[in-house]
Amino acid sequence: MTKTWFITGTSSGLGRLMVEKLLARGDTVAATLRKEGSLDDLKAQYGERLWIGHLDVTDTAMIRKVIDSAFSQLGRIDVIVNNAGYGLFGAAEEVSDAQIDRQIATNLTGSIQLIRAVLPYLRAQGGGRIVQVSSEGGQTAYPNFSLYHATKWGIEGFVESVAKEVAPFGIDCLIVEPGPTETQFAVGLDHARPLACYDNTPAGEIRRMLTSGTFEVKGDAARTVDAMIATADGEKPPFRLALGSTAYASVSQVLTERLRSLEEQKEVTFSADRAS
């Protein structure tokens, strides 16, 4: 059975690949992007099965307008893929106020507002699925990505709460957490102005790895998208899906350490309860 998908951030990377693969198998896709013309080749090939909308997710009014238009023209939309985003690279005190505002507005507030905008439509049609593209960075943290991590940890908490709110309406959620993947993510990084005092710190080491190309990237973009689509197609997908061996190793490590630390603190933790 064919489906209709709504996907943000489709100019390049995982978003573009997902559009290509879904159209090739016969589905209908509503794709949004900021860079107009990026999907003209697919539009010429697939015609009415590709609906294209111009969208800057930092503009809440525009989000609502595009969502209204997509549902009005396409009717039922089965899967919403919240994919638009980018990375801000720099130590916390290196990044500017404007860079912080833009990172949060795009990755966190934009994703929140898009989900809020689609919920009335999904409720009215009796259900649907929301796929939130996060990152292994939604559960782990690298130096120099503090603001990026703040947005990914934030959106994961938001989606986890929303999933419980909307489950009675037949709406479910899937958070996808890819590890480092061969896409244009690194090229699209917003770089802060570096401070020399961080040269010989973990932040400086990560900077040198990215500059020299020695930061290991194991993830394959096409295989990542294949796994996302296959999981989103499932009758009962997991709530979180880590993708890539790097994501598996890093998420497994931090969760294990977090649980161990919690158990070690058990006596102190329980001591905060009111006396019986």
UniProtKB/TrEMBL annotation:
Family annotation (CDD domains): 17beta-HSD-like_SDR_c
InterPro entries with a match to the protein in the record: NAD(P)-bd_dom_sf (IPR036291), SDR_fam (IPR002347), SDR_oxidoreductase (IPR051911)
Stated family: Belongs to the short-chain dehydrogenases/reductases (SDR) family.
GO MF term (any one): oxidoreductase activity
One Pfam family this sequence matches: adh_short
Keywords recorded for this protein, A-Z: Oxidoreductase
Protein's name in the database: Short-chain dehydrogenase/reductase
PANTHER family, per the entry: SHORT CHAIN DEHYDROGENASE (PTHR43976), SHORT-CHAIN DEHYDROGENASE_REDUCTASE FAMILY PROTEIN (PTHR43976:SF16)
Domain of life, source organism: Bacteria
